[in-house]
Structure formats: structure tokens, C-alpha cells
């Protein structure tokens, strides 16, 4: 089942109704004149659903009334406060298809976002922007942790825009479309954040700001008209939305699933082994069939220092070594101020990071949960699909050289009447790791404690030392598994392997069929067909879809899904998505290292006569990866995270001044076509 089908469960409201709200919800006349982006009290104050009541109560009241009258809320979004979504808005135009007709852009080193002729890009939100009315405005010279915790965090990564309708006269009048936007804040670049940063001796104040700059952001955004003289439209944050919030490295998060309560996750601060402070290095993510988001902790190892001070006789040391914890001082030296980041002082704290974290965007009071059943690894992302029998499947990759690709299959089945309560499905099921055979077949090997090679393991141990378990069952070592996504049109699974310059070198693993290039600088993409097109299958077929690189350099051995014509050069594919026609959109992370050019966004058809005809759609800025991309459901906006602009330089002399001409600030951008047309057309 694809996302469009999943979202079909949201309330059906016609586009006409959205544009012409009737008296059911809106009794009072609108008296405010149009304005250009200026927030007014009115926007908050006239909201019938949230005035002086808790969000849940008012939402429940409104929804109860609407369900009673119209019987159209089918369940999945019942808990989603304020959520009223047009099916058409979620699924795009039913009869629309994307005919890729844009003029490709070229690789660039310019310090600006480059999009094809006829397109434009705007900043939606940038590091330090207040996320709610009354939050401090950004002042890079006077940062505080308290301010940062109310501002957009650093290094935006995975983003997802969930359509919703906030039932206020003001927002409906002003906004053609509204979304709740989730954005990860993967990590910090203190050398770009702070003047005179001393990497060997950061101040406690700097560390506290960094803790607050990690995590994620929820903000409501609206597509607003720019006003009479500016023309066009622009995405802007609704600073008055009650859904807006920050999650940081200090926010309380529950551990659930097999590892919860295990001795290995108990600490001095949390003897129950169930309550973690914060999430770290959230890279990719996904959206569940019930409308929550799952954001994934990736390189959590880099936050924990002093592993060498843990005695070699301590069995935990070997696990921490397998996960690459730092032997001496950590890169950011948080352990100088907080014992939990010192492995010798709190050996179990690192076992509480490296998970897929579920968040209900529409219910700020709902607990956030680290779903340990999906394994502990350097998760790139998690992509959810519902199988025909109702079980839910999550694909996830472990982004490091020679690591593995996984999937989790729930034991229980999706119940559309349970809404976000379906999240508990993620606590019980089977975790598998992929084995790719040389003949184009593959197997999903179960990681079940007490069985086979894991006979002496508990499931808690499997979910904490997932890499160790996968080592024992004979999984295939891949060239850095990044994003894995299912194509809503052809049902196939596309897995991205970003690069691995150590493949086939020295004593490292040699090339093999699924990782066919030694010194794989540019990465590749594999196309997987599950047996019977069933996501719960335990066998699959696979083929190489693309071997990336510069097509003009024969020695790079590029391959473009059989396409023989020209293509745009591409390196280090990372995150992917699909448009409504099933074309594969790719964001890159690393072209600065290979082509000495900026990262970008590309699109390639996966079917038909144009299969493999890759074209570059966008170019980013110096030092900045394009960390995430998401198309609005109507495919008329492309959101992208421009992460770490200027990375590789310093605060005093940055290589990028994106987005405003001053110090570089990681930002979410929105790309639109001038005529409002489909992205890519
Ligand atoms: Fe944070 Fe695997 O990219
Ligand atoms: Ca990534
Ligand atoms: Ca990456």
C-alpha cells in the first residue's frame, strides 16, 4: 500500500469546501484586511477550536461534531489535533502526471540555490528563526540555550510536510494550503555557530546551545500570497499554531519494545531503563501509515567519549567498539560537562541512542517513543508500508561502510480505527537483515533471540547490539546503506548506497555483486522486488539500478539503468522520494568531495523508455549537503533541507553566506514553478 492510499483515511473534504468554508465551522465574519506575512493576534484569538482550552479537548469537541454530522472521519487521524485534510490535497491531482520537461541545471560552485528556468526557491525557515510568537529573535552574537530551544535548530535534515487544515477564518483566508512540517536537526557545526570556537575546550554555554540545537522542530506552515506588489506565493511559518514545538537533546523520550527496561539501558539517572533524555543525530525518517513521523538516530557514537577508560574486561566495551564510540575525547566534548556522555562514567547511556523515534505531530502531549524493536544502528531513515494482510513493514539502513540493510515486520495488523495507537505495533515483530546473493536473489534473515546463531541472545540484546546479531547470521556488508524507499507506482523498493572508498582496498571486503565497484567513490542504487510484491516476504530479487559518477569518465564504470543517452553527473546519492508518476528524486551528500561541486537534487524515471535518463534539477550551496527532499502531495512544491552550508570552513571566513548574505544558516527551502505547475514539468 502506498502513502496515498494510507492518507485516504484522513477526512475527506473537497477542495471546493476548503476554498469556500461553510457555516458549520465559521460563524463570524472576517474583518481583517489582507496583510503580507505579518502575524496578528487575530490569527490566534478567533480560533474556535483552541480558545482557552486544551488542544485535545477542543479538538475532540470539534471532531465529535463533525463526525456526527458527516460520518467521514475513518479513524487514522482521529488523534491528530486540528487535522482536517482534503484527500485531493494529500494525493495530488488524481489525473495528473509529471512529464519531466524542465531544462536541467549544471553542477555549480556558486553560493546560491540554482533551479531550472521558470522555477524559484524561497527560504521557509532557517537556523535560529523563532518557532512561535514571543520566542526570541535570532542574534548569532548573543545565543543562549533558552533562546535556541524556542528557535529552529541547526542542520535541518529529514523533513515531511503533512497537510492539515487549521479551521480558522484567518488561516483559510490567507492560506491556500497548510502543512505541519517536521524537520530533523541532525547535528551541530560549532565552528560555524560560534565566533572563536575552541574545539578542544568549548564552554558549557556553547555545549548547552548545541544540545538545544539538536533534535527536531514541528511548525505549521502556510502558502501565502505575497501581497499586491510582490506577486506570487510564499511558504511561511504560522507562529501562532499550538502544534509548533521543539524537541531537543534534553527532551524526555520513552524507550519501548524489547530493549526497554533491560539492564543494559539502565543508568544512574534512569534506573528503570525506560526514560531517555533527548535524541541525537536524527538523520532521515519516514511517516507511518497512521500519520505519525518516525525520525532516526544515526551517528550517535560521536557524542560519547573516553571509551578507553572503560576496562577491557567489561563486556560492554566490545559492543561500544563495534558501534565506533570514540576512544578518547569526543568531537564536541560534551562529556566535559555531562557525565552521561562519558562512557567510563555512564557506560550504558550510549545504549539508549541509535533508535527509530516515533512522534505524533498533532498531539504535543503524547509521549515520544524510541521504538527499540527496529534495532539499534546508525539508522539513516525508516520507510513504512502496509502489506496486503495489514502487517506494517519498515525498511531501514545502517549508514556506515560495510554495514547492513534491515526491515522490520510487525506481528500485529494495522487497525484504521485506532489512529496513532497503532504505534504500539512497532514494539512487537520480527527484525530482518538483508543477504544479497550473487545471482540477483536475496533473503531477509530473521534476527530472533533464542534462535539459530542467536540461540544465546535475548531479544533485548538483539535490539541493543543489532550489528553484532547481524554479523552472526551472515548478512551482506553494503556500501553505506542510506535511504530506502518504496515506489508508490511500481511497488519496488529502492535502496541507496552512498559511497565506500574502502571497498576492495587493503584487507577490506572485496567487491561483490551488490557492491560491484572497488573504491566506490560515487555510490549506487539498487532496485528490489519483494517476492510476490509483498513487503513481508522473506525473499526478494534485486538488480543494480544506477552506478553513479561522471558519465564522461569511462573509468568510473557508470550505469544508468540501461539508458544509453546523456545524463547529468551525480555522486553520493543519499535521500530519495518519488513523485506522483513514480519518478525517483534524489538528493546528494558529498559532491564537494568528489566533483568539487555543490550537492544537488536529481530526478530519474524508473519505468518506460526514459528509464535511467537522469537530470539535475537543483544545485545547492558550498559546503552544504541537500539533506532531505519532500514533494507536497499535489507535487507543486518541493521542500528541501540545505544542511551545513559552509561546512569545511569557519565562523570567521565561511565559504557560504547562504541564505541571507550573512553567516551561513542551515535552512529549509521551498521550490515552486512560476505557473504553479507540477515540479519537474
Ligand atoms: Fe546523515 Fe546517512 O546521512
Ligand atoms: Ca542522510
Ligand atoms: Ca549522508
- Domain unit count: 2
Radius of gyration: 24 Å
Mean pLDDT: 87
Strand percentage? 25-35%
Bound ions, cofactors and other small molecules, one mention each:
MU-OXO-diiron, calcium ion
Helix content, binned percent: 10-25%
The DSSP helix count reads: 13
Shape: globular
Low-confidence stretches: 1-94, 171-175
Write a compact overview of the structure shown.
The protein is 12% helix and 27% strand.
Give a written overview of the molecule:
- The protein is an alpha+beta fold and 681 residues long.
- The chain folds into two domains: 4-298 and 354-542 and 552-564 and 571-673, no CATH class; 306-353, no CATH class.
- Strands 13, 14, 16, 17, 18, 20, 21, 22, 23 and 24 form a ten-stranded antiparallel β-sheet that branches.
- A hairpin with a 7-residue loop joins β4 (215-225) and β5 (233-237).
- It starts with a helix and ends in an 8-residue tail after the last strand.
- Mean pLDDT is 87; it is low at 1-94 and 171-175.
- It binds MU-OXO-diiron and calcium ion (CA) (2 copies).
